[in-house]
Amino acid sequence: MVEAHEVFGLDRARLRASFERASAGYESAAALQARVAVELLERLAAFNFQPRVVLDLGAGTGRVTRELKRRYPRALVIALDLAPGMLREARRHQPLWRRFARVCGDALRLPLADASVDLVFSSLMLQWCEPLDTAFAEVRRVLAPQGFFGFSTLGPDTLNELRHAWSQADGYNHVNGFVDMHDVGDALVRAGLAEPVLDVERLVLNYPDALALMHDLKAIGARNATAGRSRALAGRARLARVQQAYEAFRREGQLPATYEVIYGAAWGSAGRGRPASGAETVIAPGSIRRRSPP
Predict the structure, then answer these.
(1) What is the pLDDT of residues 91-130, one digit of tens each?
(2) What is the value of pTM for the model shown?
(3) Gap between the Cα atoms of 119 and 14, Å rounded
(4) Domains, the chain, ranges and CATH?
């Protein structure tokens, strides 16, 4: 019997190559990524952080890194990404008066010293980390004891329509696996990150047809990098079956693509630092809960 982790294990060399190819045109198709990053940035506003070092983990083309540098102008802000091409694009978002560092590195083995970062920000990157425990352990290692970790990632309902459509076409896995919110919370605790809290939001993007969705996924580098993928090119017949199966989801002339977005926050090993503006914000460990059924 094939284990799920064997089917959904990620080929990191393929991931790096996919994001490298997508770097030049990434922003044109990254509407969801931009929206989620804005939401995650707004959540930081509840805290009066004055970090010395900020890490944008999975920075991509650096748009969010630029905003982090604007918010924390006195901090050393680091854009870290797996793909060198993304970091080359990030140069375009560096004003002369607000420059940030660019580091090519892997979230599973961060090239940073222990307890050297006060704020780790990571938006829609952790779904590319397998095993997730390793990524969280690295965040815990580089995070200062009273540092803060804010992130977003994708849950298992993501792209469920596309997953179903491909299942009607062949027996291979064509959509990456995503970790349930409750399991994300458990992984945070195992890593030794303190007072974690998570919540979930479902977003739906609409497309005229299935090929338009696949084009956008390819444009942002979100190719199938799982071990259970087919090594053969999808022929016209298979693509036609996928398109036909996807049509069952059409509503009001559009095809939906569902994204289950998980937002999370945790502190370093010593727990929370000083609350914002003298007002305490309570984040209870018991807030971690299983996701509600759709």
Answers:
(1) 988 888 889 999 999 999 999 999 999 999 999 999 999 9
(2) 0.86
(3) 29
(4) 4-155+179-203+259-276 (3.40.50.150)
